Amino acid sequence: MVAIIINLIALILFLYSYQKNKKKSKMALKKALMKGLKLAPQIIMIIVVIGFIFAFIPPDLIRNYLGGEFNLLQVVVSAAFGAVMMIPSLIALPLAGSLIEGGASYTPVAAFITTLTMVGFVTIPIELKELGKKITIYRNVLALIFSIIIAALIGGIM
Amino acid sequence: MSKNNDNQNKDKKPNIKDGLSKLLKVILISIIAFVILYFFSKSRADAAVDMSFRYLKEMIIILPAVLVIMGLADVWVPTSLVKKYLGHSAGIRGKILAIILGTIPAGPMYVALPLAGELLRKEASLSNIITFLGVWASLKATQIGVEIKFIGLKFSMLRVVFTLISVILIGLIMERLIDVDKEF
Q1: Interface mutation vs chain B, best among A39, A48, A126, A144, most B CBs within 10 Å
Q2: What is the pLDDT of residue B6?
Q3: Could you report the per-residue pLDDT of B100-146, keeping only the tens digit for each?
Q4: Does the CB of B33 have a partner CB in chain A at under 8 Å?
Q5: Could A123 and B5 be called an inter-chain contact, meaning their C-beta atoms sit closer than 8 Å?
Q6: Reported confidence tier of residue A142, pLDDT bands at 50, 70, 90
Q7: B60–chain A Cβ distance below 8 A for any pair
Q8: CA gap A49, B30 in Å, rounded
Q9: Residues 6+ apart with CB under 8 A from B67
């Protein structure tokens, strides 16, 4: 659905642009193609890495680590899982829900979800190229720190 | 997509060839990696292929359109406009716009990152762009819906509020620490 809308928007914008200025529109397509060619190999690499990480750290493994009694190491491990992995929310969130139902504490589960979304370990190669070393490092380190603070706050309130 | 390719190939330099050969190499390496994994463990290979294909599908159906939109934005949207609405002087409005842009469901982070780079080059402020990236990564409406369903409303609302505050703070902190003009 989302994909259809985005493709439709792209098509409409392009047709409108083409009517207004053919040359500019061709230039835009050329830029899109070049950018795509530059990005595609990296994205494919990332997609492969995501698959491999998922194969070696399956949801069951996460369940084992996060399911037991609450301790600080759990929070660290779940934050590490979250930072390294990139899994669709349709898999991650039901997993998190089942963990809590199974008696897991909110803090590690929250740490897993916040780092999963905020810290992008696998996308760092692209981030480095697009935003530079300094921004990439600061952004991810700060995101990791804030993720853990958020997890502690949620754990405390829930 | 193939039509576009045909159009472009005529007036393009070896650049495209380099890109294509690199792409081919990466695809080949990927296939080899999966084959090796398959011999190592069939079940792990199945899981890996399953997950990778999920993202590959998303990439194929969304990325070309996003790239075209980005290309069009690049030639039509002048720096002054980006500066006005997302730059330092945009104030709270810039923040709100960054947050709204972040919620657009146009794919994973690897779509947002090039977009962020483009906006920075057009003089959007670093704090707005960092907020945009943070929202893109963690505050998608679809994700929040699933989250409420599986974990609960209270948890989700707490996470949304704290995350929103965090990504704005991270943006402000980074703006203090980093001189963007030096980076770009």
Answers
A1: A48
A2: 44
A3: 999 988 888 999 999 999 999 999 999 999 999 999 999 998 889 99
A4: yes
A5: no
A6: very high
A7: no
A8: 9
A9: A32, A33, A35, A36, A39
Helix (H, G, I), strand (E, B) or coil at B101: helix
Using a CB–CB cutoff of 8 Å, tell me whether A54 touches chain B. Answer: yes
Sign of the CA dihedral with B42 first, then A95, B104, and B137 last: negative
Distance from CA of A72 to the nearest CA of B (A): 20
Report how far residue B160's alpha carbon sits from residue A149's, in angstroms, rounded to the nearest whole number. 14
Q: How far is CA A11 from the centre of its chain?
A: 27
Structure tokens at A73: 């190491």
Test A33 with B5 for CB contact under 8 angstroms.
yes
- Is pLDDT at B8 greater than 50 in this prediction? no
Indicate the residue type of A72: L
- pTM to 2 decimals? 0.89
Q: What is the pLDDT of residue B1?
A: 40
CA distance A131 to A136: 6
- Contact (CB<8Å) B12/A87: no
Question: Do B184 and A132 make contact, defined as CB atoms within 8 angstroms?
Answer: yes
Hey, what are B145's tokens? 């819906």
Q: Nearest residue of B to residue A142 by CA position?
A: B170
| Residue among B47, B68, B183 minimizing CB distance to A55 | B47
- Chain B: closest CA distance from residue A104 (Å): 12
B76 touching A (Cβ < 8 Å): yes
Query: How much is the average pLDDT of B47-61?
Result: 93
Tell me, yes or no, if A158 comes closer than 8 A to chain B by beta carbon: yes
pLDDT in tens, A90-120: 889 999 999 888 888 899 999 999 999 999 8
Which long-range contacts (C-beta less than 8 Å, at least 24 apart) are formed by A13-19? A13/B68, A13/B69, A13/B72, A14/B68, A14/B72, A17/B72, A17/B75, A17/B76
What is the arithmetic mean of pLDDT over A84-90?
Answer: 88
